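Re-run with default settings, no changes from the original entry. Doing this only to confirm the output is reproducible before filing.
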Amino acid sequence: MQTIGIDVGKRQHIAAICHQGEREARKAVLRFSTDRAGLGQLEDWLARQGQITRAVLESSGHYHLNLAAALQRQGVPVAVVNPIESKYFGKRRLQRTTSDPADARTRALLAMVDQPEIRDVLTGAELREAARFAMALVDERGRVCQKITRLLELGFPELEQAYDDPTCTSALAVLRQAPTASAVARKRPATLALAARPGGGRAIGAKKAAQIQDLARATIAAPELAAQIGFQMRLRIAQYDLLTAQIAEAEAHLATLLDGELVRRLRTIPGVGPAICATLIAEIGDIRRFERFDQLVAYIGVHPAEKSSGQKGANPETSWRMSKAGNAYLRTALYQLAIVGIRHNPIIRAHYARKRAQGKSKVNAVGHCMKKGLAIVWGVWRSGEDFAAPETP
């Protein structure tokens, strides 16, 4: 029995081999490029080695995918391991040298000793890629919203008195017509009252328009910056609209890849759309590999990590922060689930209200709602039952 370990790189891979019964991998390694010629070198090298029972690669961004697929086509069983698993295996073996060849030898020995699980790396790869692309668009739109909020704080800070979320649909409808307080003040009330989302929708109405104009006339925004803020706001909202259209297209594509009873059940949870559903399924995989809910929480990184030192830990409300040490794609999905859930999911909405009543900040309360949303997903997924909202007394 022989195993191989490969250190994955952008332009060059390094392969090492370990024979059964040997305490260490062989010193000699194969260096091969990431192009067709390099894969030919690898194929010739593998043919001289005899039967390979397992090849171990790290999940190195996206660089390992084409290599793993090529190995599978050659009949080599592939196990993709987390870099942390490889790192601590080396520490366990008292590895002192850190280099690409040494890392390849460590993975070859890991394949022999620990025998990590073999999986088809392309199973679910299309769904995972599509889900990550959709969530990346959602994340990018979130950053654009932050920039719009900054511009509002300069050009029309009073708008937050009219809308809890100054980047909500109605607020953006106003800003498309008049991107600053001075522009709002100059608008005819009847025109402002007709402000609505692109493509139609309910207008903000005369009462809300009058409130916004009263706020605009009492603004503290510096008029000297109005022209520049208005210019930037127009472009930022155009970015927002473009990303919104792209998200809709990406989610429509995701819907063609999603099928089955699990998808239907998860979609019964208020706030779980195609992108969030696909991300949950693609990134979690088999949820039963997590024996306890806390293990899934740690895998995603929505558990608290203490950040206290000396006087910094005196206030328990500020000495704990979300770990963010796990799967970033799942955290993005859970953040979106929490934001939508605060408005539309009765369980998450009530949980948010409780945390705010306890004195938690908005950001902290949303973090708690992310974990609550995950608990709902855990329950629906593992129980095999649809989401059921609690009965109101």
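Residues 226-257 form the longest helix (32 residues). The first strand starts at residue 2 and ends at 7.
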